[in-house]
Design brief:
Layout (H helix, E strand, L loop, with lengths): L1 H28 L40 E3 L5 E3 L20 H27 L8 H45 L2
Helix pairs in contact: 1-2
Length: 182
């Protein structure tokens, strides 16, 4: 039963992690809505261009053309000490551009399916726990049967322990006699 409880706890932890990740994704990637009759309030983001292998290397003295400097990082790379002002998004709480609506809704569907599957796993584990289909009287009766069986097994164990002690004493006596023979 403890194994089922551990599995249930792990499944609940996974469910909470998935919920947090889904909320975090929604917060970070949601597209801005348009309100009819009002100008768009969505911040303008600079287009993201993938880095190319032909990117110019920074100057050897560590200064850039915009006046910022290059700082070496612990992993061996270099990073500007201050980002250029025109690359920063206008929304201070959002650092990445929103996903396109089709991509966002597809990701929401996948997140929802993952959450539903995890919930079904939790439900299966809960239903497989012992005692859910039994009445209280039958559970008490089963516990009494198990207690009686435990007493019998404990009596057998005590009897076997006594026999073991007798055998150890007899073996010790035999070993003592063997050492005294000239």
């Amino acid at each position: 039963m403890a194994d089922r409880l551990t599995q249930l706890q792990d499944a609940l932890d996974n469910q909470l992690t998935m919920m947090y990740a889904a909320l975090n994704y929604i917060q970070a990637h949601h597209p801005y809505g348009d309100i009819p009759g009002q100008a768009s309030q969505a911040p303008a983001f600079a287009p993201i261009t993938p880095p190319s292998d032909a990117a110019p290397h920074p100057p050897a003295n560590g200064s850039l053309t915009n006046g910022s400097t290059i700082r070496p990082q612990p992993n061996g790379t270099a990073q500007p000490s201050q980002p250029p002002a025109d690359d920063a998004p206008s929304d201070p709480h959002r650092t990445i551009p929103p996903d396109r609506p089709a991509v966002f809704h597809s990701a929401l569907r996948e997140l929802a399916q993952g959450l539903v599957l995890q919930e079904q796993q939790i439900e299966y584990l809960v239903n497989s726990l012992p005692g859910l289909g039994n009445s209280e009287e039958s559970q008490v009766r089963r516990m009494r049967e198990l207690e009686a069986e435990l007493r019998e097994v404990e009596a057998e164990r005590a009897k076997a322990e006594e026999e073991k002690e007798k055998m150890v004493d007899m073996l010790g006596a035999l070993i003592g006699k063997v050492n005294r023979v000239p």
